[in-house]
Amino acid sequence: MRLLITRPQPDADAQAAVLKDLGHDPVLAPMLTVEVHDPGPLPVSDVQALIVTSRNTLRALEQLGQTDATLRLPLFAVGEATARLAKEMGFGAVTAGPGTADVLVPVIRDQCDPAKGPLLYLTGERTAFDLQAPLQADGFSVKRQVLYATRPVGMLDPETATELRSGRLDGVVLMSPATAKAYVENVKASELAGAAERLVHLCLSANVAEALADLAGARCSVAAKPTQDDLLALITREAANC
């Protein structure tokens, strides 16, 4: 399949490489850019564990310069890919939750104790699911620290617009609601909604598919679980039907 890859860099390059190895033809078209925020020294002295929901958070932490004290803390991560990057960065005690933030809550609840100190929730400016509220309802003190923000690229670049007009594309890979929303806005602004509606939109989760609601007639296919492996399995099935 000839697939439009919409996630921010550097994840766009990594996803494209995987898809190319599987015989697909990826076309890079990131819909968001990542801006790192510097909050100053992180308040880790009394923290019992860190919560991280994306690799962008970890990259921001690395760019800002994590300390030895930070690396010694237990870390809870959404998904195996985020957990793997945390280990590569030097975190020793890493727990990988399932593929979405909401199902990480019971994992943290089972392994942490509200009496042992606050949790430090490292996040982007926008989150698909806010872990803070349910954990606070369970009696935890949760400090949220924003380390980055994602911004829409603004407009489709000429190459991406040409790809959409050409009819050569088979599908679009969408990994987050924010990415899907930016994609819809850019496609409509370029008057390419009709071209986009001919494609299959390969979505990591139902929340991603819901963000395509303003693209009337868009065909969506959702991974069985919000994991990279399930998304790749979805793409394989769709390719068999092309």
Give a verbal description of the structure:
This protein is of the alpha/beta class and 242 residues long. It has 11 helices and 11 strands. The chain has helices spanning 11-21, 55-64, 68-71, 80-89, 105-111, 132-137, 158-166, 177-189, 193-196, 206-210, 228-240, and strands at 2-5, 25-28, 32-36, 49-52, 75-78, 94-97, 119-124, 142-152, 171-174, 200-203, 219-222. The strands form 2 sheets. The chain has a 6-stranded mixed sheet. It has a 5-stranded parallel sheet with strand order 2-1-9-10-11. The model has no long low-confidence stretch (mean pLDDT 92).
Topology:
Elements: E1 2-5, H1 11-21, E2 25-28, E3 32-36, E4 49-52, H2 55-64, H3 68-71, E5 75-78, H4 80-89, E6 94-97, H5 105-111, E7 119-124, H6 132-137, E8 142-152, H7 158-166, E9 171-174, H8 177-189, H9 193-196, E10 200-203, H10 206-210, E11 219-222, H11 228-240
Parallel strand pairs: 1-2, 1-9, 4-5, 4-7, 5-6, 7-8, 9-10, 10-11
Antiparallel strand pairs: 3-8
